[in-house]
Every structure is written in structure tokens, then in C-alpha cells.
Amino acid sequence: MSKQLISVRINDELFEGEVEPRKTLADFIREDCTLTGTHLACEHGVCGACTILLDGEAVRSCLMFAVQADGASLTTLEGLAPEGGPMTPVQQGFMEHHGLQCGFCTPGFVISAHAFLRDHPDPTEEEIREGLSGNLCRCTGYQGIVRAVQRAAEITREDVTA
Amino acid sequence: MKAAPFDYAAPTEVDEALALLDEFAEDAKVLAGGQSLVPLLALRMSRFDQLVDVNRIEALRGIELVGETLVIGAMTRQATIERDEEVRRHAPLLAEATRYIGHFQIRNRGTIGGSIAHADPTAEYPAIALTLGAEVEVASVRGRRRIDAGELLESAYTTTLEPEELLLSVRVPVWGARSGFAVHEIARRTGDFALVGGAAAVTLDEADAVARAHVVLFGVADRAIRLSSLEAAIAGQPVDQLDLAELAREATAELRPPSDVQATGAYRRRVAAPLTERLLRTAFVRARRAGDPTEEAAR
Known about the structure:
Number of domains of chain A: 2
Largest sheet of chain A: 5 strands, mixed
Number of helices of chain A: 5
Number of helices of chain B: 13
Number of domains of chain B: 3
Shape of chain B: globular
Largest sheet of chain B: 5 strands, antiparallel
Strand order of the largest sheet of chain B: 4-5-10-6-7
Distance between the termini of chain A: 55 Å
Largest interface: A-B, 32 and 31 residues
Oligomer: heterodimer
CATH topology of the largest domain in chain A: Ubiquitin-like (UB roll)
Shape of chain A: globular
CATH architecture of the largest domain in chain B: 2-Layer Sandwich
Structural class of chain B: alpha+beta
Strand order of the largest sheet of chain A: 2-1-5-3-4
Number of strands of chain B: 14
CATH class of the largest domain in chain B: Alpha Beta
Strand content of chain B: 15-25%
């Protein structure tokens, strides 16, 4: 049960910490790195609020132990857009189409949507709904979120063609 | 909730992992993709003194065609299997079934070996291993052995693996020409555990009679089961003369699926029949198409 020293690159910044093996990656991100943009709700892999990018791939950070991420490179919500800089197309879409109400699930949705749109740049509504099925929202009824992702895809395409 | 304390080791070689498993035996647990184990630990439904994380063992990853067998390293991620060209060509059923597993975030971590060793009675991979007649290769400090999927799956969340054994690879036989496959499951929402699921693999002869058929249901018993009586009833029969609806009804009539908050056992049995019929119908159509040279050229 002895603590282990780990180093994890998060949003291009190196974080080191001494953690108990049972500490989840989500708790490490929030408590040790004070990056509280990653939210935790169910803590057992159902809700998707804690979704982050691990070496570029979307994963649930509550379903990994921090020790497993030693040497890995992560992106959390804070790392998507530069501070004070322009929002990402996904963030812009969420703002324009009311993709959130209370905002608790939003970090997970935004991260998932980033990974989803990277792999499906021109998705149908059905594909979007399936792509978002790993994230739960209790406020919006999902309509605004689906429109937000459609808008994000549109903005991304405009950016590419512009 | 948080997991109870445990000691953690992340070996980079199979032999190191085997030595740890030998030392700690039932006090140790192998941590693969963690998409089932970590929730069980977090909810304190399970606890172990020692976790052996095999994510850093490179030798457990990879997909290779060896003769007529697709050998898939136990730690190959579901997302990799879903997209792999070799899998699509030589074990299309495995690729198709992978899309039913959880959500893409889960498939980015979940592994084939972990899923099979976990032996969830509603899970896709144990059922597909059974459908395709796969074997697993396992090792302990005492040596290696191969176990047929049918002998591996003992009951709910229980396999015939010994606590000291590590699952190394899954060996999926390539089904030959004129083979067709189908997988489908009934779930309330995309990514949910299946209420009832099933898969079929068939091979037809030149006269469109059934040369070989494996039909599997999952979510209807304490493990994935083959419908042996149905397989025997259709063996050698011309496809066009089979009354699939009646055969499926007979084959599922004796099932006693579990009831839970999601669905009653009676409901599960009721949908098992049309599901079985649909699986066979789809597999037969695909088997015929797989044997048609013009279709082959068009693909």
C-alpha cells in the first residue's frame, strides 16, 4: 500500500506526485493537480463526466488508477483552448446551442465530442447520438448537445475550407 | 466510493507477472483494461491485496494471422480490434460484435483478454469466442496450456482459469469459404449491457445445405450458451427448407433466463426466439453472398 512517485504530462505541463495505488486518475487530476475542470459524478464508469484524453484517446479517468498513467500524456478540459484565446469549435457549438444547463456533465461531453469529431468529421445525427451515448446529462434532454456537436462539425469544416 | 487499499505492480514481462501471480495466488488480481474490475473495486464488491497490472507488457498486444488462426494478444484493446483489417477479413464477426461493447471511451481501454477472463454472462467477447470456436492460451510459472472457450466459461464471472494463470492470447479459427456470421443484441440503450444477445456462425456447402453451424445466446443463463439441439437439427439440411421460426422457438423454449430490474426472465425467453431466427437468417444470407464470386469482386 506504499505510495508511488509518478509523473504525468497534463495539458503540456509536467505534474509529479506521490500517490497511493488506489487513487484514481480522476482524483489525482482534481486533488493533486488541482485541475477541477474534470468532473466526477458516478465514480464507476457510467456517467462519463470524468472523460479525458489519454495519449489522444478519450477514456474515463475514474476507471484508471493514477499509477497507471505514469509517463502518459493527458488532455483535460483546461487544455483544449488556450487561456484567454478563442474557444474550440466544440465549445463554440455548446455556447451557441445551449448545450448545457447546470454544466456538471459538460467537461465530459466536450472532451468526448472532441475525440468523436476527430474520428467522424461529418457525422449524421444518429452517429452523434451514438457517439455521445457514453455521457449522461440530466438537464438538457440532449437536444441542445446534439445541435452543439452538429454546429461544431460545421465550424470545423468551415475552418478547413476557409 | 473509493477502492480498498492494495499493493500494485506493473511488470513489463510475462514472466514477472507470472511470478507475482504465483506468489500471491488468490490474493492477487490481474488488471487488464480495468473497465469492469475498477468499478468492482470502487464499489467494494471486490478487493485484492495485490493488483498485477499487465498494461505495460508489450508482448501481450498484437494481432497476427498464423496459418488458419488469428492470434490476438490478450491486452489488445477493443478499439484496436474494431478497426483492424486482419480482424475484419478473417474474423468479421469479432469486429462486428465489438461495436456493441460499451461506448467508444470504454473500448479505448477494454481488452479482449480482460473481457473473456471476466466472463460476464451478458458480455460480447466470451460469446463470440464460443461462437467461433476460439481457444485461449494461458500460462503460469508451471507452463502453458490452451483452453477451448466452451471449457473456459464455467458460470457467471467464473472461468476455469487458475488464480496463478494469466491469459496470454485468444486464438480465433478462420472460418472458410461460404461462411456467414451475425451478431445482435437487445438493450434499452446503445452501450448498455445486453438484455439478450446472440451470435451465429454458419458454413454452407455447394448445395446450400448447412455444413457447419454454431449458434450462441448470451444474457439468458449464467454464461453464454450454444444451442446444441438447434445446431444438430439444422446440420446437413438445405437452408431453403428450414422453418427457422419454428426451430428457433423450439430451441429457446426450455431456457430459464434470469429476471432483474431491466427485464423479466419471461421477456428474455420471448425475445430469444425471434433473435435466434434473425441471427440464422442473416448468417445464411451472408454465407451465400460470401460464396458468390461476383459479390466477392464487388466488395
